[in-house]
Amino acid sequence: MVSELSPTPGARSVRADGERPQPPLPVKMVIAGGFGVGKTTTVGAISEIEPLTTEASITSVAAGVDDLTHTPEKMTTTVAMDFGCVTLDPTLKLYLFGTPGQERFGFMWDDLVEGALGGLVIVDTRRLDDCYAAVDYFEHRDIPFAVAVNAFDGKVEHDLDDVRWALDVADHVPLTVFDARERGSVRDALLVVLEHALATAEQ
Amino acid sequence: MKGDDAMTAGEPSAIDDAGWEAEPPASFVRPFLLTAGRIAGGDSLVPPIPIETQVVATDLGLAALDAFAFEQHRDIIAICREPQSLAEIAAKLRMHLNVIRVLADDLRADGQLALYAPAHSNRDVTVLRRVIDGLRAVPDSRGAIREG
After folding, report:
1. B residues 21-60 near A, CB within 8 Å?
2. What is the complex's ipTM, to 2 decimals?
3. What is the pLDDT of residue A14?
4. Which residue in A18, A111, A167, B129 has the most C-beta neighbors within 10 A?
């Protein structure tokens, strides 16, 4: 059996062999959005390591995901995924995974996203339609998420209310503006997601 | 001849903490041969091991380090002297995540790796609060932390 780490540090058991280092509790968040929107920049701004790239499999769905009348054509695709991490304390490590995907098709990241604390959907207001798939995904999977407009060059071309209207996201989904290059700004955007996740969990 | 140096393929590549800048040569052993065609994830009925699962070599694994027939097994044990996630192992060894999932689970079954899966913590208020507190303490590029 795979051991499960206890989420509370006080309850960590001393292992029988007692010598190998006890790993931290790993938690993860997902950074999503269209191609070139700044996912890797976001991860790199806050990660304590240079973002790493690994090959992973995602399932892309050729037909509409919501169409229950027939089985959609499913295809497993290997994609490159960038990720980084932040050690929050010796017992807790946050991983940030930039989710890959053929942006305009339906796709399923269940294999990568299962257990994520929340998602951050990055939006470029010049190409809003690139992020619909990510918004749809988090909504359908009931994963707490926030939408973050990446202010390229410190400028946002559209009013946030217009962005919310255009994306058709529910009122309870937080919408924020951030700069993917700034560590403090990325941190605050992630905190928006986590505070939303906490409020949802406490309901 | 200078070119001969590049032809010493198959020689064990040195694994050390600082060595990841150099790209390791691609292995002659195809990954899915090692997994005997088994794959993780995808349409597999077994739920895949979460990608952030922490992996640590056991004393048994480290003791067997020189005895592995395949360099992939040895490489996994060697970098897991320090705890790492499955995703990090896959990235550093340049192997597909689903191959690492299978190989790590094999090594776990043999007692050579310990795997620590995250508890189902995404709805756990205590965990969320700890992550929020930890993240607030991360300074921005000017060194300022976020006021709670």
Report:
1. 41-43, 47-59
2. 0.86
3. 38
4. A111
